[in-house]
Amino acid sequence: MTKRPNRIKEVILRRSSLIIFFILILGAFGLLRIVTTHKDIDDVANIDLPIIELLTQIETNQLEQAIAFERAIRYAEEIEPGNNIAILGFAEADSTFRYLAQLVDIDLVEAEYAVADALKQTNQEAQRIKLKGLLLSIKKLESDHTSYENHALEVMDLLEAGRIKEAVLASERVESEEDQFNKQVEGVLMRHEMFTEALVKIVEQEEVLSMKWIVTLTLLFIILSLLAVYTFSYKIWRPLEDIRSGAEKIGGGNLEARIKLSSNSITSDIVDSFNTMADQLLYSKKEIDRFIHFSYSTADDLRAPVTNLGSLLDMLGKEGVNPSNFKAILNNARKTNQQLEKTINSLVEVNKVREELSADKEDLDIDEVLKEVVADSIGKVKTANAVIKKDFSECPDIQYPKSQLKMIFKHLLANSLSYRDPERPLQIRVKSKKVSGHTTIIFKDNGLGFDSIKHKEEIFRPYTRLHSHVDGSGLGLYIVKMILDYHRGGVRVEAEARKGATFALRLN
Fold this sequence. Notes:
The chain has three domains: 22-217, Four Helix Bundle (Hemerythrin (Met), subunit A); 258-354; 356-508, Heat Shock Protein 90 (2-Layer Sandwich), CATH 3.30.565. It is built from 13 helices and seven strands. The longest helix is centred in the first third of the chain and has 54 residues, at 25-78. It starts with 6 loop residues before the first helix and ends with a strand. The protein is globular and about 110 Å long. By secondary structure, the chain is α+β, with helices and mostly antiparallel strands. Strand 6 and strand 7 form a beta hairpin. A five-stranded mixed beta sheet has the order 2-4-5-7-6, with helices on one face. Strands 1-3 form a two-stranded antiparallel sheet.
């Protein structure tokens, strides 16, 4: 690909060659203009961009909510005795709709708080007028979404009750409200973006006007000013060039690209926003890839018991089944049903963890959290004669969502108990420490172990069981990895067959 000419550098250097700073008067004038422009840029970076992100998020979640609503109706119309796919599809669409409805409600409240907080921060009258109008629009969106959501939930209840015709008739009003709400969100977002663009243009016009005044007032000081101008031009050009280069890399698919600037850079706020955006894009891509893989794995895990159950039902439906065969078929059907129930419960647990990923962090005593987890599994711990040794002296506390830290300990403990070596007493060692400023938990056991070089990626995939004698869901380590990834942590595994396993978990 042909490298595009650096127009930013050319424009700045061309104009800066004509600009000369007036040593006293122009110096004060230029400083005043820089402070004012920087304040305007701050407003764009700290107020407008986050609000645009929130409104975009509301729009995205609302569209996904609408899709889930339509799917629920479609699956409900296909529900009939024995059509488990339609039943499960409706349940999943119903659950997704309700979750997204709550998420949109939360997003709207968060947007209202963000706008109210921005009103307190800004001193610009134009910004205040715009934000007041935006606040009124968001409050109306909250009211309209509540109405739409209530009517949609009524349709869902009708569908769940099997009153399909009534639900389909009622859904026409819901779809009308949904379309109107989507247009309102799009309109609010568009108006806010247009105002932000206008504000940026005003800032640019002020900069151009400042340049003209500077040129007019400083023609007498060309020799002394050229060096300062080129120096200042470089300070402006270098960050902008880095931003342009970073954007090209991300646009080319390199989501690992980041921009590094000195702490006193005048564009540090914009660069921080850029890097945050890149982090969110990278996480979102990983989450999408993980979810797609999880969906395929789930479908594959469900296929066998569903097929088996269908075959057993066909056998029961045949004439001439003697009582002994009938009882054996019925027992197999019950076992298959239990397998399905276990898989579905695991899916519910994964979805619950995913919903709680954004929970607030708390000041936690790591030892107390582990004690609670051990207490919940004390029966299994005593049955296994497990000895748990702890050392949290180096790092006793952490800021983390409590439910998620408990979930990490729960699945690691369950993993050690399930895969213990029957030929020796189970020993578990848990230690915390600080590594490069990050809280790390070392979880080690002397169980059956595995080949970590061969299976280091495989064990974190859903429904993975390296030992066939253990009856588990195969989702424990997948959930642990999902929590760690969300908090930008990580995990390193070292294990050998019959020599136990060690998990080093960087929590944040």
